[in-house]
Design a protein that fits this description.
14 helices; globular; mainly alpha; 321 residues
């Protein structure tokens, strides 16, 4: 009985993580006596989340064969479709001169589309039996594409943001380097330096370490998402509309990714590449350059994408069994 319960938890780790994150936040929200503790913990959690993302990538990169990193055909088509979706949203806003709540809704959708492929997509892809090297390559490509699209598109729809192309480009590129390049260099050093050889062998043989680190970070992100929703100044109906649009968009991007991948024998990789977004980054760019309510979109998107990931992992486990 205990073995079945542990197996169930492993298959639904992401859903369990989201449930714990939501439960803890609601506990602090509805019990005022815990307010002093929440004030002290808030900055700690804000600093822990980037650390988790760093460790996830470091552990993942330690398992990557960097000699196999190369561009493949599905990389190109996935990037083309992401750019195409971005062009539709931005073009629609400009052509029809959309304003008000409709603009906020479209900005929320845009934040979910334009966001780069999640660093954890490589973790989930590895869990599903996909090609880690192809996903790692696309993660770099997606972040560079994001660094180009955001400075071009955001000033067009929010001219008052005061963002110039080069300042935004360099700012985003700097964040990309900190998130991707630094853990990659450390992983290379861990592989190459003889004093770290034993640690490296231990690290790569810890099963699903990066996946469970992602589960821990997901608890924090879920709590942050609920905080954005509970403190929103809009009506519940509009928030539900944003959440539902995020669900439709999530299903669309996964479906298009799977369809692209079928032509190249890489449905797992392409589906995760287009569907699984770095929502923490998307929330950051929306909060800084778009309407504050547009952060609710990527906040809800993370729930939808991890439900899909959990279903995929469950199906993978069932099929393997």
């Amino acid at each position: 009985m205990l073995g079945k319960f542990i197996h169930l938890i492993k298959n639904w780790t992401l859903v369990v993580s989201m449930g714990i994150g939501a439960g803890v936040y609601l506990l602090f929200y509805y019990l005022p006596v815990l307010d002093p503790i929440s004030v002290r913990l808030a900055p700690i959690f804000d600093s822990i989340l980037p650390l988790f993302m760093f460790l996830i990538l470091y552990v993942t990169f330690c398992k990557v064969d960097f000699r196999k990193l190369a561009l493949v055909k599905w990389h190109f088509w996935t990037a083309v479709f992401q750019s195409f979706f971005v062009a539709i949203i931005v073009g629609g806003i400009l052509i029809f001169q959309i304003e008000g709540t409709t603009l906020i809704l479209l900005e929320s959708v845009l934040a979910c589309i334009i966001g780069p492929c999640a660093a954890a997509a490589a973790v989930v892809t590895l869990k599903l039996g996909g090609n880690l090297e192809q996903m790692t390559t696309y993660t770099f490509l997606s972040n560079l594409l994001c660094a180009l699209l955001i400075p071009i598109c955001f000033p067009l729809i929010e001219p008052t943001s005061g963002m110039t192309f080069w300042s935004a480009f360099l700012l985003i590129l700097n964040k990309v380097c900190l998130v991707l390049v630094v853990p990659m260099i450390l992983a290379l050093l861990t592989k190459r330096l003889p004093p770290l050889r034993k640690f490296y062998q231990w690290l790569i043989h810890v099963p699903d370490l990066s996946f469970y680190l992602w589960g821990c970070s997901l608890m924090i992100v879920t709590g942050t998402t609920l905080k954005n929703i509970f403190h929103a100044t809009s009506g519940i109906g509009f928030l539900l509309l944003i959440a539902f649009s995020g669900l439709l968009l999530c299903l669309l991007q996964y479906a298009v990714g799977w369809l692209i991948g079928r032509f190249f024998g890489a449905s797992i990789e392409s589906g995760q590449a287009l569907g699984q977004k770095n929502t923490a980054f998307a929330i950051w760019i929306a909060a800084n350059y778009l309407h504050p309510l547009s952060t609710v979109g990527p906040g809800c998107y993370i729930l939808w994408q991890n439900i899909i990931n959990s279903v995929e992992i469950w199906r993978k486990g069932k099929y393997s069994a």
